[in-house]
Each structure stands twice: as C-alpha cells, then as structure tokens.
Amino acid sequence: MDSVQPGSTPEPPSSTPSLWRTDLPTLVRLLAGLWIFGTGEACLVLAALGNSPWTVLAEGVSEQTSLGIGEVTIAISFAVLLLWVPLRQRPGLGTVLNAIVIGLAIAVTLRAVGEPSELSLRVALVLGGIALVGAGSGLYLTSRLGPGARDGLMTGLHARTGRSLRLIRTSIEVTVTVAGAALGGTVGLGTLAFALLIGPSVQLFVGLGGGLSPPVGRGRTGMTLVRGQRPRSQSSAPLPAATSPPAGGRGRSPSSTASAAQPPAPSWCRSSSRPSPRHGRGRAGAE
Asked: 186 in the Ramachandran plot: left (φ > 0), alpha (ψ -120 to 50) or beta?
C-alpha cells in the first residue's frame, strides 16, 4: 500500500510517457538542442586538432578492415543500439531527429565558417565546440524524447548504476579513444580535450535544463511516497470514541463519561443491588 505524508495528494498511476508525441515548445527545445549540438561538432572539425573519440574508433576499425570510415560509423551506431536492450533504453523522436538535424547543422556550419589558420583560434574552436556540444546535449536530452545512439549508452548506464553523467561520459569517451588509438586511429589535442571535458560539460547543462527525468515517486506537493508505511503524523488518524465529548456532557469527568457510555446492566445484576430483607431497609432509610 502506498501512503503519503500529510498535505500531499497521491498521483494516480499513469502509463509511461510517450517519446514520440509532444507539444510545440518541447519540440522547439529538442530541435534547438540538436542544432547547437551539431554546430559544436562542426567547430571540432574546423579546428583540425584531432577527431572526436568515436571517429577515432571508426578510423581505427577501418584501418584493420576493408570498410570505410562512414560504413564503420554506421556499424558502430547499430552495435551501440544493441547495448540499449540490457539497459532498457527506448528510442523516441529525439533518437530519429538526432541522426538528421545534427548532420544538417554540421554541413551548414562547415559551409558558413572557414577553417582558421592560427593555433589560438583553433584551440578556441575546440573549447567552444565542447561547450556547444554540452549545451546542445542539455537542451535535447532534457526534452525527454529519446537520446541519440551514443548518448543513450550514457543515459542508460547512468540510470542503471546511479553514477554521475560526468563520470560515465568521461569513462566512455576515454575508453573509446584508447581503443581507437590502439587500432590505429589518429588522436590529437582536440580528441583528448573532448574526451576529458565533454562529461563535465554535459552534466552541467543537463542539470541547468532540469535533469534527465521528472522526480519519480513523488506526490503533487513534492512529498515522497513511502511503500508499505503509514503516515507518521497522528493528525490524520481517527480519534478514539472515548475522547470525543458527548453532547451535553460539558464539565463531566472522564470516569462519568466512561460510565455513561456503558450499557445498562442485566436484570439479574440489578436485583443483587437491592437491600437484603434482614437489614429492613436500604442505606437511604438508615440515613
């Protein structure tokens, strides 16, 4: 049995929220986040200081096989999606738009912005790109319409283990970078910076966006539901009948109230209270 603390109203059981239908403000939030995400990815490409960790992995696998980087990237994406099954991750509208909008944003940004030649500008693009990817992730993930393939691995591990997004994302990116480098992928300054800084960036902006999911198991007033436990407060418990003052019983003592509530004694008990014949008369007559 579910109980709530006083002052809260338990919410009726509801089905799992849809990841495919939403309102216009949430859809705009999702699209804006994905576009910002893609713009940040384009900044990393323009900096030319090393590929992102997943591209390093794809490049390394391509070096060991006869497949191209594009084909390996698609294969890796499907492999990551298979990891969603034990993590109980579900695709949604954000999963589909992730593959479309981010690619468009990268293409538009690369055409609109030229590649800088100065090292300081390239470093600035790396740092700015990491910040944009984190901000875009915060917007689109907190729209709660489904993550992209690789972000779903992060959110799934976060939900299953309870570890911070910062730790899980950093661990994933570092592992992918090491694996890609071992297979022959090219690692640069931008690769290392992304692997180490993207986790804190994502956690910061997801927190600013309100978190990955609304509070679970709470009433409408924010009181936590406790399964199998009664409310601790005694104000909601019914008062005993003996403590309720009867009508017209003002000024009576507790003993008189209790005696008034008792039923009349049986006739055979009442007869025993009469004066004995050998005494002649009752106490009232003796007085």
From this structure: beta
Which 8-state DSSP code applies to residue 218?
Answer: B
What tens digit of pLDDT does each residue of 165-192 get?
Answer: 999 999 999 999 999 999 999 999 999 9
* pTM as predicted: 0.69
Task: Find the mean pLDDT for residues 28-53.
Answer: 94
d(CA 191, CA 243): 75
Residue from 46, 59, 70 nearest 186 by CA: 59
What is the 3-state composition of the chain as percent helix, strand, coil, each rounded to the nearest 5? 60, 0, 40
More confident residue, 283 or 155: 155
Q: How far apart are CA 188 and CA 161, in angstroms?
A: 31
Residue 250 dihedral angles phi and psi, to the nearest 5°: -70, 130
Helix segments in 142-248, DSSP class H: 149-161, 165-182, 189-208
Helices (H), 48-164: 53-64, 69-82, 84-87, 93-112, 119-141, 149-161
First to last CA, the chain: 65
Give the length of the chain: 287
Token pair listed for 240: 């005993």
Instruction: Tell me how far apart the alpha carbons of residues 96 and 40 are, in angstroms, rounded to a whole number.
Output: 19
